[in-house]
Amino acid sequence: MDRQDVFDSEHNKPDFRQLDLNSNSSASKKSGTVCPKIPVGNVGPRNLSGELGKTRSGVMGHRRSSSTGAPLIYSGRSPSSSNTSNSTSSSSISTNGSGGGGGGNGGNFVSSVSCVSSGCSNLYPSGNICPSGKISKSNMVSRGTKSDKLGSGSVNYGHGNIVKGGGGGKVENVRGNVQCDSEEVKNQGNELYKRGKFFEALGLYDKAIGMAPENAAYRSNKAAALTMLGRLGEAVRECEEAVRLDSGYGRAHQRLASLFLRLGQVENARHHLCLQGQPPDTTELQKLQLLEKHMSRCTDARKASDWKGVLQECDAIMVAGAVSSPQIIACKAEAYLKLQQYEDADSSLSNLPKLEPYPASCSQNKIFGILLEAYVLYVRAKVDIAFGRFENAAAAAEKSVKIDFSNMEVAMLLNNVNLVTRARSQGRDLFGAGKFTEACAAYGEGLKYNLCNSILYCNRAVCWSRLGLWQQSVEDCNYALKIQPNYTKALLRRAVSNAKLEEWAEAVRDYEILRKELPGDSEIAESLSRAQDALMKLRRGDAYVKPGESSGFSGSDHFKAVMHSPGGSGPDASRNHKKYPEL
Fold first, then answer.
1. pTM (2 decimals)?
2. Is pLDDT above 90 for 139?
């Protein structure tokens, strides 16, 4: 496992301690999505449904709700006259004013009834909580055998806080109950998050947000799931939305600071880490200070063209915590490019995190005087042009200029990409017209604007070979192979040119590599055999091999197609140059 994988695995461990596991955050209180708890006293078995049924005395009536003290709902029992004169009681009912849910859903009302003495069975509660707002006569039992559900809609209700819908099921169109449902959905998402099922948790957080879009805690939890899925740009936007909904939501600020540190956004991280009135996290603050130090050193090394120093500082920045920073990864690729480690440069860019579209808070920050997004595209265009991906390079350079149109360095890159592309097109046209000298000059003009373009070097090598300048052909093939070590066409052209120069050891070496790359190519095998025979004769001191005798190394149709087709336009281009197709 390489260093990048270690960084990613360390920073992608689920940290469910950061989730909003309950609704006690300031964000939840603000949005009003917390389901208030109903206090429950030391009572026996409860019926939360609000159904009518037999009481302990055997008389039909409403069963007790889950409140403490005397029942809030008239049960229809006959009051005891013997206790009337000796009992003193006080009762109170307080409501939340928002309308409660029936039965076990727990409506938004809080009730308390207290009795001073033990006898309070003849006491009726106050408030319009009985049908029609009336109190039934004493000693009246339920009529009929059919039990009615409270809130079933079969009778006329008064104007109290008991609503239609009854039973323990879901109550429709009641804000308090919808809030409770969204809390339940969020809690289910938290459980999935703890078990590492981040994608499934994300779906539940989205559902909870759809039910309560103004809840900042749901947004923050969604950001946690997105972070674990590597979707950092989306995570930043969700955290920013949570902060917008509740500017004092500390957990969202903390998560934003952590994300910005991971993305190498020092100033943005500082803004959310050092909130007024809240002490910053010491560990995150140390990361911030370390990042600042190494990023300053990286800038100085780039100004001095100390590209090895740039690589060292980029590694130190990633160790400090900026493991997913696009601009730091691009900076490493640029350093590799300057050090002529082209494969490493191309490989580095493959690790770029996906942040498009860039969050607004990130898009206007700069590195080395270039807007972050423009700098990443700037380096991408440089790598693409080096590998001969002309169209990709032009597209990246044009997009970079659109993002940071005032930067001269970015504008110069686009101009160079256009000039190199034009030179390549002119060289192909001249070669097709048989003007090999002019074609060499055209390719050379393009190399003035981009010295690390393997395609231009390889195409010019073909022109040199057509002019019989085998040594120049070998030299251009060497340049192309330095940029792309596995460039099959350049390797084949160099092998043929070395055979023409009777450099048999070099020719055998190249043909052996080609034999491994193209094991089914019979002509490669035949050419290798001839080169080996010539090398053995030379080492034994046998008869001198005349230059004309080596013509078989380029006389076949296969080699003619490869040697005489610049830019990979020959029929064997796809077979002989699979990894780096010339355009």
1. 0.61
2. no
